[in-house]
Amino acid sequence: MADTMGVATQSPSPQAATKVWRPLVEYAASGLVLALVARGTPVAIGYRQLSYLEGLLPILALIHVMLWRRRRGHHMVALEKPKKKDTGTKDKAKEDAEIRKEYQVLWVTLAHKSLWFIYVALLLESIAINVSFLLDSETSTTWRPWMRLGVQFQAGLAVTWAAHYLQLHAAEIATTVTTRSSLWAPWSQAWSLAIIFHGLEVYNTLRARHATGGDAELANHWLLGILAPVKLGVAVAAPLVYVTVMRSVRVGYFSPEPATEAKAVPTDEATDKVQDIPTGVEQGKAEVAAEKQTVEANSNPAEAGTTGETTDSTKHATSETESSKADTTAGSQTAKPATKEEEEKKPVVYSVFTLFRRVILLVYELALPIDRSLAVRLAVRWLFGIVSRWIESFEPLYYKAFLASLTTPARAFPALIRYAVVNAFTQVEQVTIQSRHMAVQNSLTYFTARARIYIYNVIQSKSMRFHTASHRVSAAHRGDLAVAALDQFLQIILFRLGADLFGIVIGVYQYSWVFNAYFTPLSLAYGLVSILRRNVYGPMRTKLRFVTRNTDDTVGKCMDDLNQIETIREFASEAFHSKKYRNALRSKTRQQQYGTRALRILDQVLDIVTRILFCIGVIMCLHFMRQGTMQPTDVMFYMSHFIMTYRPLKFLVELNYELQTLYIRCHDLLELIDEPVEVKDPADAAPWQITRGAIEFQNVSFGYDTKLILKNVTFSVPAGTTTAIVGKTGEGKSTLFDLLARFYDVAEGSITIDGMDVRHVKQADLRRDMAIVPQTHTRMVTSILFNIQYGTAAYGLTATREEVEEAAKRARIHDRIMQMPQGYDTKLDYSTSNLSGGEWQRLTIARGLVRKGKIVMLDEATSALDIITEREVQRELADCTRGTTCLIIAHRLPTIIHADQILVLSDGQIVERGNHAELMAIPGGVFKKMWKDQLKEKEKEIADGII
Ligand SMILES: Nc1ncnc2c1ncn2[C@@H]1O[C@H](COP(=O)(O)OP(=O)(O)OP(=O)(O)O)[C@@H](O)[C@H]1O
């Protein structure tokens, strides 16, 4: 069964699911029997021996599970024993690594299950201990009600826990037995409960010893008193050890998998990818490489955003260094075909420190131009939050004072006033809290707008290679999510952080020093539980989100597919795309469910712990009341203060959640920002523009990847002449255009225009005077006028309506436009419903012509036109490009017969050059053969009556 997050899980059969339960039931039964027999009055063994047995229980549990596993051949959690695979052509080392990895998964799973069984056993045993105390005639009658309460409480928890676990697993047994979160959640919950049970056990044990006083036999029970806390320690430490082991073996549980093309696969394929999780050593190497990459990225923060409006001086300086470096090494370094190592580029993983440092710098940069009065208002709000939290903290104290004063009416009135004032303030504070929140949010809209512009510019500034190889929509979407997370985080910082931290400090202080020092451990315990839980659950959620993000990407890419709706229709592949989308969504939904469930469990645990701590506090209050050191008013104080103190603590947990969301989102953002920009503007480039348009290619070599497309190409195009480039498809003709316009940098050699290397000028300056009519025409969903006028976008859409019409006439599209209901103002849509393919091509030609470039590049510009229209357009093109440097790529050779120079490209090199007559004069020449072949083809078509 497919499982994008799972370990090497396999489709569990119903039998496998039963097998999961079998050892648990066996062990639970034996543990219970052992505990009951040991404690039961009929056998009545000594407490000392019993304590030894108790200590042995976890070990027995482990042995039991291991024996069971042996017997069942590793069918622990429907994981198969790693099999020796068919070596075939596979690399042996790789195969060994795979087997090792599977063993690691197996052992970690085993460890997990073993601990889990221990907890179940301890729970049952704990109940048994309390029952045995109840059955024990020596147990003091004073403490019997406590024992009974303990048993009821534990039994209640056990039932709740079992029901919850069953509910959790009911669906999973039907689908997949061991997804990672399902491994985690019940285990963690069992752990939390085990701590509670053992706390109660310690409590009961100590109470029992205390109650039995100096009884001779029970005086020896010190072992019992020691073992119970030891077990508590084990219960706390074991999960930490487990987590450490899990992390160190690095079997890939929740391993961050930043989205790459390879990972962005539909759900069904994703399972196969999980098999490629690196082993510990490999992952270690990956991390070193990643760290190195990170360091490099950090030392080079300027790569992105150089075109962004937020570019600061630091960035600029770095950018300069980078650019000058690029210049000195230009031609040999910049665009070398990628090496194998580069191809297998490891994903960058930023350390938390690096990430937050950079995010803070980014926020600072983006928020810097903030309005001063706005900053003052924000600061005032922030301070107000702290002050109000301080005032609020007096409420329980004054309430207590008021209650205490009721016995002496003279003091009651001032006490009431004090309490009423603070209470009124608190109420007003609660009412205004929303409006203050809104105000902060409004202030932040400036920031988010700036951040969005910044990201937009970053995406625009990326090299062509980035745009052709990745999904812009997904990148933009990720950018948006990052901004939303930053926004949320800033709201928390500005609105709650200071006040709530202050609230915690005040709360703990009042509890511990003003109220009663015995309550200090209680207040600290809560903080401790929060921190522990954060450490255990935190990484899980972070990593879970990495996986979720990949699914987000897959879903995003499915949506991108809709852009290709025409192709989808043509190939009737709707069902295929629906399935792909359904799979991606199903996977996303499942992951969301896991995520939500993990959070729900977190909340439940937090609530349980809170309530237990509250109860403990109440019991302590009652105890002190019996001793006479506390008054009923103190109990009131305790109860009202509790909520106030722990609300901010709960906020800390929320903050942790927000921090993790921020980490994921900002990780995406930094990845995007740090994506290397291959083609950069030199920082010191002076303004420049094409004057004559003389072009020179000198020993140019280039390849998109490892394969060289162009090899040592040299040619020149004198200013004002027309050069045609011909050759078979895929020879690299369009690539020559891309290099001239500097969409890519040459790997070797140089390209100059008017004697200036194209790498030494700003890209905008270079392209401003170029008119490119590409093979694929861009359709803009707007008016025809704008579609043509867009040719002058670089000049601020300066083409007049007359100029647009003139260009359209030359492109032979004017008449067609005038037939449309709104003429040039007709709105075009994305499809060809109101313009045919050939008409769109003519519109694109008009767009190129209106630009009036000094260098015109026509790449198969008329390929979609009929012969007659093509001839007419060609004539017009020849006419209006007269005097400008013109480069033409054409497959139909008669269309370039007039060219001053024809270059024949073959196998990445120019094999022939000259004008039409000269090339036709070369005996056995490539061009001559191409010409004859085309002629023959045409004669055949005429003979066949095709044309
Ligand atoms: N962005 C890219 N990434 C990787 N390879 C590319 C990219 N663009 C083009 N190629 C490859 O480079 C080679 C040359 O492509 P190019 O478009 O320059 O050929 P062409 O001669 O213009 O072809 P045609 O006549 O079919 O338009 C082809 O093999 C193509 O697959």
TrEMBL record:
Q: Which GO terms describe its cellular component?
A: plasma membrane
ABC transmembrane type-1 domain ranges (all copies): 447-661
- GO MF terms, alphabetically ordered: ABC-type transporter activity; ATP binding; ATP hydrolysis activity
Q: According to the UniProt entry, which residue ranges have a biased composition of type Basic and acidic residues?
A: 312-325
Cell compartment(s), UniProt: Cell membrane
Entry annotated with the keyword Phosphoprotein: no
* Name of the protein: ATP-binding cassette sub- B member 6, mitochondrial
Gene symbol here is ABCB6_2
